[in-house]
Write a structure and sequence with these properties.
Blueprint: E1 6-12, H1 16-29, E2 37-43, H2 49-62, E3 70-75, H3 83-92, E4 97-101, E5 105-107, H4 111-121, E6 128-130, E7 133-134, E8 141-142, E9 144-150, E10 153-158, E11 165-173, E12 179-187, E13 191-192, E14 200-204, H5 224-231, E15 236-238, E16 244-246, H6 260-273, H7 279-289, H8 291-300, H9 334-381
Parallel strand pairs: 1-2, 1-4, 2-3, 6-15
Antiparallel strand pairs: 4-14, 5-16, 7-8, 9-10, 11-12, 13-15
């Protein structure tokens, strides 16, 4: 069997019907690369009827498909957040590259193959990648999230004028009855974006920076994770051919709990982690929760109202810009210089923590290997 090239991970919560459709479409419409896929389903509701159906489907049907690289069902306990199971996908991934997608997302034919080829050509990339969301008419796209606050979210759907993509398929039949298929494309080059919805995102397994483990419930991950990458000098890039469709409307609504308080709390947690000013989040959610609730939630995190204007602005697309050098006779912009220094210190701190965590995992694996070797030796030498 070929080496696994891509882990496709999905967090699921009481969503068997959509999971069935998504995994069936993935295997049916991307047959050219199924032997390279490591499919992982992380279930936040394993002890429900939906959970039982998901487990049976993955283990007794998907995993037994001839030629498929592999498929695993992982029970993850009761729902705590949408962030934790996505983090877990990277922890259990058995391939060097990871594609995380919702259990109600479909990907255009050939896009997964092209993603694998992209990583083959860029094996050391540290960037985070997205594709354009295609609406239900399968034509109009949203290429990115714009850096603005609306409807309890940091980020609004937008379409970049640089985006260009056409894919025309022509089927030809010769007089002898032979059939040939021609695919013609017209597309733009990948380009950098502020952020994107997290129904589908991808990066190298070792390049994942992770959602804050203190996140709770739904919301707060978009733009936070994108800013986290830019703070380390990495990029968030749109791959124009990685087109995906997402089911938004559901007759019974989403099955997991939604809470405005959880969203605001997650923004506080994430923006504090990144050293960002909290003012934008406070102003936005104060209109929905009221000043008393916002102040109480800030106090619960040990944050005073006087401190919400202290911190960094989000790193701009293209990376943090150094302060302009003063012209002769001008005074240097000390505030800008101090902000850049603080941002660099934050970047080094995040990277130091990541390296320390990787070192601890490596030491733990080494200790387990040594213990296993010692036990094996004792068994062989026992009388």
């Amino acid at each position: 069997m070929a080496d696994l090239k891509l882990t496709v991970g999905m967090a699921v919560y009481k969503d068997f019907a959509n999971l069935w459709s998504t995994l069936t479409a993935l295997r049916m419409y991307h047959p050219e690369i199924i032997e390279l896929l490591d499919i992982v389903v992380v279930d936040n509701a394993p002890d429900t009827p939906d959970g039982e159906r998901c487990k049976d489907f993955v283990e007794n049907w998907v995993a037994k498909q001839p030629g498929l690289g592999g498929a695993r069902y992982i029970p993850f306990g009761e729902f705590n957040s949408t962030a934790a199971p996505r983090n877990h996908v990277f922890e259990v991934a058995e391939s060097p590259n990871v594609l995380v997608m919702d259990s109600h997302v479909m990907v255009e034919p050939e896009a997964v193959r092209r993603l694998i080829e992209w990583y083959d050509d860029n094996p050391d990339t540290l960037d985070l990648y997205h594709g354009p969301l295609i609406y239900d008419d399968l034509h109009h796209p949203s290429t990115h999230f714009q850096d603005e606050w609306r409807s309890e979210m940091w980020g609004t759907w937008g379409t970049d004028e640089r985006y260009e993509y056409e894919r025309n398929v022509t089927v030809n039949r010769s007089e002898s009855g032979e059939v040939s298929v021609q695919v013609q494309r017209k597309e733009c080059e990948p380009f950098e974006i502020p952020g994107q919805g997290l129904g589908l995102f991808t990066c190298r397994r070792d390049a994942w920076l992770g959602f804050n483990p203190d996140f709770r419930g739904f919301g707060g991950e978009e733009m936070y994770i994108h800013t986290k990458y830019r703070q380390l000098g990495r990029k968030v890039i749109l791959l124009p051919w990685l087109r995906w469709a997402h089911q938004f409307g559901r007759p019974g609504g989403v099955p997991y709990p939604l809470s405005v308080e959880d969203k605001f709390r997650n923004y506080i947690v994430g923006m504090t982690e990144l050293g960002l000013k909290l003012r934008p989040a406070v102003d936005h959610f104060e209109e929905r929760l009221g000043a008393d609730s916002v102040n109480r939630m800030l106090a619960d995190r040990g944050i005073t109202r006087d401190s919400i204007d202290t911190g960094l602005d989000p790193a701009p697309v293209g990376g943090a810009s150094p302060p302009q050098q003063p012209q002769q006779g001008e005074q240097p912009d000390r505030d800008a210089m101090m902000q850049t220094m603080m941002q660099q210190m934050q970047m080094m701190s995040v990277e130091r923590d990541r390296l320390s965590e990787e070192r601890d995992k490596a030491m733990e694996m080494l200790a387990q290997a040594q213990t296993a070797a010692t036990d094996s030796h004792h068994r062989r030498t026992a009388p």
